[in-house]
Task: structure prediction
Amino acid sequence: MTTTGARTAFLACGALARETQQLIAINGWDADVHGVSAVHHLMPPRIVEDVDRKLGDLTQRYDKVIVVYGDCGTGGRLDDVLAKYGSAVRPAGVHCYQWFAEDDFEEISEDIGVYFLTDWLVRAWESAVIRGLGLDRFPWLKDTYFEHLSRIIYFRQDPDEDRALENKAREIAAFVGKPLEIRDTGLSPLQSLLAPLFDTQLDGGDDVELEDADVRP
Result:
């Protein structure tokens, strides 16, 4: 996306690129944002391939690259890619839903039927889910995909002053036929993960030590 001559780059999942850019603006960080398609979550090996390809370029141009991904279904292969590049790190965690759930994640995970929404997924529902999963062509698959869900938890980052996101989330819940719970997380969970990584020096500088940050690899 942006190229400002900064020494730090964020390589962000498309589902979090907007929020990452907002945090850069809020904190006044001197950093660029580069994106990876969020649709790759439908086929996680593509996440690994695209991140690897982009890190091969970005690590040549930036002192540090913060990869804004959890493991995201890659089975540890994303961390194997990051290990190839000494200047690349990511926040610890299996996926962004864990980040937004924070201390409640373990309790929520006891219910294996929970379906998570974020702002990006609410906005991209038609393209990512309806068309991405073929429901526009094979609507009878809806029960196959969703019948075993228990509830929907929407982690809302945007203030949503006009309630457009809330209204869309309620439409989604009605379509799926499951109860909806909205949790207003704001950007604080992402801030708490990314700020220590931005402040950490990977070359032994005077800032926060790497082991003090919640980080992979």
